[in-house]
């Protein structure tokens, strides 16, 4: 199996003639054309060098179209905060599953995810309802020359309430689009049926529990996704209803505002409050059920809740469009201070999440983490904070750019501008972006200095690992040492994430405080400060506004380019290969999980092939493919698992997944997997920035990790290799002779085990003839 970015079956099999033997255009298994029906021609599969062995038949599982095949998926870049917060769910520490803090952790992550949906909908309301319908449509300077605003400036729709109802179609359409995408992607990618036989008992973890990825329902959580989709859809609709009710409340509750609108407003406010209560209850009531495939659907939550929220929104729209002859719009839309409350709520939830993570980390059994967990178990809280910050940046950037576009020739929020501009908090959040970027730049410079020092330290010893080869210039040693030093930077990722998270927290608190105390953007608020501070504040505000706007424009432009450019589409697919491996356990609008299709595919293939032929196979995976391979082996029943060998190379199983996701890939689960799989070998290089050793303990058998492969294979020019050998790093592991040696050794161990272990038998179903004996019981694949 290939890794991130994908490759073609022809490249994987080393033959231009290939055929897909099972699967579809999205994901399928391919063979060389001459091997398509190898099981039916046992006499042609004999290994000429070994009369008692069969020739291995290679197959290639191509899954790249699950993430980068469709150009429309490039627009998922705008859902990046949802994907990031979903990762926080899986970054929980490796504490026992029955620990009380586990439930608290899961609930807090789901609440943070719910707040991001509210933030996205509020951002759409800020753009459509506040900037366009409330401010620009009421300003002759702003509306002049904009013919598309004509219906909102004259006639029946010109009243403020009716303009708001018309503009509310945009956030409602956005919510409906997210619901449709979530439902469609589930049907297309994540609804694969479980394997034909449930996985059998696995070796327990230090706490006495089974590894999470070996549970039969891990890759099939339809019920939770459906329930969360309903809750988040209802939350989006109720957010629009809240904006409309808040806009009318100030007018209706003033003296002479009218009796009927005020009464209906209170009634609708109670209905909206009841809807929010139902949304929170549905979102936090129950988490994932992994002990078995959860195929049931909560009809009330999935259908009644969104429908009821839509009905309430329709009544609120009628209430808002009520004729109010003396109502006019000015300044900003009432209720824009809700962004501050959303920020405060997210900060409080992330703080509680950090406390829950600390409690779980302290409860981790000995040997389940061994000091390898990123950020001491606080990685989930840090990633959730970054998801909230990213959502705030996208919100502020969209609002700032739209405001600048509407008020051409002026500056929104500054005296003399045509419109008041976005809320003050968004301007303060934009002004802290340059400071955050400065922290990242400082970290990058520190990393460069570290690489330079590490390269100098490693250069003298590079030649010693190439005994018997001619010595070259020192430049060759520096090249190899630099590759090793750069690869080791991956281990500094937790420090970077921690630094960015802490800086984001401090700057976010400062922006919230500044907006609350001054009530004005940073530039005008600093007008009374001494010295050059006012000019500095105005400069930072301008840079931040452009930076946040540029980020939004960059994401949209990248998505548009990927729609036309296959290379760009493949690059974006690499991001999703890493970020969408995990099921949607926290946010239903995150990009779909491709592993919920890939893992059942692989499990079905291994179970049915070994059962049908009685043969044995080696499943090998590179990079992200090794993670899929390990996840698929975990899902096998013991009889099938005993006939499967695992070969991983360039694998991030321990280096990335084990440190950031300790509950699923920490030392405990990986050690349990090594005891379940008798034949497992892992190849890695010092120059590989992604792959590394899995570092699992051995029980007297052959070790899993091989010694690091030499890279490059040859130091200098030799008669056999007169041209310089490249530094391969993370790629082309199959070009190393060690790959063929280890594969042959695994096949030999499988053949040896096959002479002592009988093939699994399947009882015939009623009315089914007895299966024929396997033709080649020892054929490896």
TrEMBL record:
Transmembrane segments: 74-92, 104-124, 164-181, 230-251, 263-284, 304-322, 338-361, 373-394, 428-449, 495-520, 540-559
Biased composition (Low complexity): 749-768
Name this protein carries in UniProt: Integral membrane protein
Biased composition (Basic and acidic residues): 31-52, 772-781
Region (Disordered): 1-52, 749-781
Keywords assigned: Membrane, Transmembrane, Transmembrane helix
Organism whose genome encodes this protein: Streptomyces glaucosporus
Keyword Transmembrane helix: yes
């Amino acid at each position: 199996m290939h890794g991130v970015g994908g490759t073609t079956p022809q490249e994987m099999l080393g033959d231009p003639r290939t055929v897909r033997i099972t699967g579809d255009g999205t994901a399928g298994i391919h063979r060389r054309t001459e091997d398509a029906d190898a099981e039916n021609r046992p006499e042609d599969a004999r290994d000429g060098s070994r009369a008692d062995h069969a020739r291995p038949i290679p197959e290639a599982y191509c899954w790249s179209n699950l993430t980068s095949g469709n150009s429309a998926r490039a627009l998922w870049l705008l859902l990046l905060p949802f994907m990031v917060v979903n990762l926080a769910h899986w970054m929980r520490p490796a504490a026992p599953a029955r620990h009380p803090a586990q439930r608290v952790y899961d609930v807090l992550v789901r609440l943070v995810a719910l707040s991001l949906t509210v933030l996205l909908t509020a951002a759409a309301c800020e753009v459509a309802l506040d900037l366009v319908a409330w401010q620009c449509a009421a300003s002759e300077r702003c509306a002049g020359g904009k013919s598309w605003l004509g219906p909102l400036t004259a006639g029946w729709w010109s009243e403020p309430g009716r303009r708001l109802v018309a503009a509310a179609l945009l956030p409602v359409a956005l919510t409906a689009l997210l619901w449709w995408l979530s439902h469609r992607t589930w049907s297309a990618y994540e609804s694969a049926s479980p394997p034909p036989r449930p996985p059998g008992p696995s070796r327990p973890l230090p706490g006495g529990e089974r590894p999470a990825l070996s549970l039969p329902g891990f890759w099939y959580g339809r019920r939770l996704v459906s329930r969360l989709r309903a809750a988040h859809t209802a939350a989006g609709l109720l957010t629009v209803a809240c904006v409309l009710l808040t806009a009318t409340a100030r007018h209706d509750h003033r003296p002479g505002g009218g009796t009927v609108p005020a009464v209906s407003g209170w009634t609708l406010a109670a209905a909206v409050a009841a809807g929010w209560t139902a949304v929170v209850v549905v979102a936090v009531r129950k988490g994932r059920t992994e002990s078995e495939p959860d195929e049931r659907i909560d009809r009330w939550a999935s259908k009644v809740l969104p429908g009821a929220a839509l009905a309430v929104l329709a009544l609120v729209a009628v209430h808002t469009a009520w004729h109010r002859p003396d109502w006019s719009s000015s300044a900003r839309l009432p209720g824009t201070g809700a962004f501050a409350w959303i920020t405060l709520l997210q900060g409080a939830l992330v703080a509680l999440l950090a406390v829950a993570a600390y409690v779980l980390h302290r409860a981790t059994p000995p040997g389940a983490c061994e000091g390898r967990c990123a950020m001491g178990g606080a990685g989930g809280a840090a990633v959730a904070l970054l998801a909230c910050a990213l959502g705030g940046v996208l919100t502020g950037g969209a609002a700032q750019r739209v405001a600048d576009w509407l008020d051409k020739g002026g500056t929104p929020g500054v005296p003399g501008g045509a419109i008041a501009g976005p809320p003050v908090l968004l301007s303060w959040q934009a002004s802290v972006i340059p400071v955050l970027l400065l922290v990242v730049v400082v970290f990058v410079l520190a990393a460069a200095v570290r690489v330079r020092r590490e390269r100098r330290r490693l250069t003298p010893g590079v030649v010693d690992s190439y005994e018997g080869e001619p010595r070259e210039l020192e430049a060759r040693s520096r090249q190899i040492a630099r590759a090793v030093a750069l690869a080791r930077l991956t281990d500094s990722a937790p420090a970077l994430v921690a630094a960015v998270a802490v800086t984001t927290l401090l700057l976010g608190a400062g922006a919230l405080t500044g907006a609350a105390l001054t009530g004005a953007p940073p530039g005008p608020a600093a007008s009374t400060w001494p010295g050059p501070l006012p000019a500095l504040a105005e400069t930072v505000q301008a840079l931040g506004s452009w930076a946040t706007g540029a980020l939004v424009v960059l994401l949209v432009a990248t998505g548009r380019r990927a729609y036309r450019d296959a290379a760009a589409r493949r690059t974006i697919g690499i991001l999703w290969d890493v970020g969408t491996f995990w099921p949607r356990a926290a946010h239903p609008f995150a990009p779909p999980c491709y592993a919920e299709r890939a893992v059942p595919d692989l499990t079905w293939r291994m179970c049915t092939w070994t059962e049908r032929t009685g043969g044995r196979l080696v499943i090998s995976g590179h990079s992200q493919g090794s993670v899929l391979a390990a996840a698929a082996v975990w899902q096998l029943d013991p009889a099938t698992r005993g006939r499967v060998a695992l070969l991983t190379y360039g694998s991030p199983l321990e280096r990335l997944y084990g440190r950031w996701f300790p509950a699923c890939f920490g030392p405990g689960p990986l050690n349990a997997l090594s005891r379940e799989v008798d034949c497992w070998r892992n190849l890695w290089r010092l120059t590989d920035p992604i792959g590394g050793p899995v570092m699992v303990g051995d029980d007297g058998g052959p070790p899993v990790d091989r010694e690091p492969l030499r890279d490059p294979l040859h130091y200098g020019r030799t008669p056999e290799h007169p041209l310089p050998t490249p530094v391969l790093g993370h790629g082309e592991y199959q070009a190393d002779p060690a790959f063929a040696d280890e594969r042959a050794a695994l096949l030999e161990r499988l053949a040896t085990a096959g002479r002592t272990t009988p093939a699994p038998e399947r009882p015939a179903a009623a009315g089914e003839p007895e299966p024929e004996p396997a033709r080649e019981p020892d054929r490896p694949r």
